[in-house]
Amino acid sequence: MSLPSPRTRLLTRRLALRHGLTGILAAATAPIFLPSRALGQTAPSRRIHVGIIGNGLIANAHVGALLGRDDCRIVALSDVWQAAAVRMQERIAKVYGSGDAPPIHRRYEDLLARPDVDAVFICTPDHWHAPMSKAALLAGKDVYCEKPLTLTVREGRVLVDTARQCGRILQTGTQQRSNAAFRKAATMIRHGWIGELLGIQTVLGEFPQPRALPEMAVPADLDYDRWLGPTPWRPYHPDRIAGNYGGGWRVYNEYGGRKNGDWGAHHFDIIQWALGMDASGPVEFIPKGWNGTPWQTHRYANGVAVGRVDQLPFGMIEFRGSRGRIWVGRGEVLRSDPAPLATQVVPPEEAHLYASDDHHTDFFRSIRSRQRPICDVEVGHRTSTACHLNNIAKWVGRPIRWDPVREDIIGDVVASRFLDRPRRAPYATF
226: domain range? Predict the structure, then answer.
C-alpha cells in the first residue's frame, strides 16, 4: 500500500475537522504520514488553521496568545477597516515571516469561504457577533466568539440551534471560567462551604452616557456602512466606532449592552456557573430605583438575588451565605470569611466542575475531540440572556418576569418587543 501524499493527508485532516466525530474516527484509521509532534512541535499537518474577524483591541489580545502557540496558525484576516487589518498583518508577519503573512479580506464572507480555515475568532463589536457566528457555523467552521455572545435574546437561541444542527463547536469568550480562582469559588458555592446561599453582589462599573456626535468624513479605507451593519444608520464619528475599553461603541445601546453586556457577561456567567444554571437562568429582573430598590437586581426561582453594586471590599463578586462569605476577582483574588476557607483544598469528591486552565487550549481541544467546550454556545446564550433582560427592565422602567424554560417574558407585551431588534437592510437577514 502506498502512503498518501502530504496534500492528501492535509485534506484528510481538514475533512475530519469539518465533519466532526465521524470524520475524526475515519481519519484515525488512515495511514500516518507525519508524527503528531516533530522535534517538540506540532506538525504543520495537524495545526488548526484560524481566521480572525475584527482586528482591533480584543483581537490584539487573542493574536498575541495565538502567536505563541504551535498548535494553530493564523491564515486569514478580515476587517472593514483596512488600516486595522494591515497593522495586524504586519504584527503577524514579524513572527511568521513576510512570506507567510495572512491575506486580508474586506468581507468576512470571503474569509469563511476559504476551505483552509478550520476555525474563526470573532472579535467585532457585539452587533456583529450573532450574524457572523451563524454564518461561520453554516460554513462548517468552529467558532470562538467574544462576549457577550449576542446583541439580543432571540439571537442566542438561533445560534444554539445552528451549532447543534451543524455539529460545530462554539466557545464563548467568557474566559473567567478558565481561571482557577473563579472555578474554586464556584465549587465552594456548589458544595455549600458557606452554608445556605443568601445573596450575591457584583461590580460592573459604569460607562459615560451616550452623546450626540457630529458627522465627520469617513476614512477612505473604512467601509462604514458595513461596520454599522444591521444597526440603525448614524453619522460617522471616530468616537462611535472606537474600541477602547472606557467607551467608544460600548457606550451605545445600538452596538452592545453597555456594562451589563461588557462586564455582566463575565460576572453573571460565573454566578450562573456557581448556581448550576448553565441551561436556565433568573426569573425576575428589577431595575435600580423601582420602589426604592438600591441596585439593579435579578432573582432566581430559589429566591437568591444578584445585586449590581458600586463597590465590594474585595474582588468582583461576593457570595453571602448563612455561614460566611466568598469574594472572587481577577488576578487570582479569592478571599473568604472565615478566612481559612479560601485556602482550604477542595477534596477530590467535590472537584467535579469542568476544569480548564486556558480558554484557547480548551477551544482547540474541543475542536479535536468534538466535545463541547467550557463556555459552550448554550452557556454563552444563557449568560447573555441575563445581561439583555437586565437592560430591558431598565428600558421599560419596571420589573419583568422571565420564564427560562419557554424563554419568554411573562405578561408584558411591551418588554417582549425588546427580545429582538429590527435589522437595517441590506443586513436584515439573520
Answer: 177-357+377-430
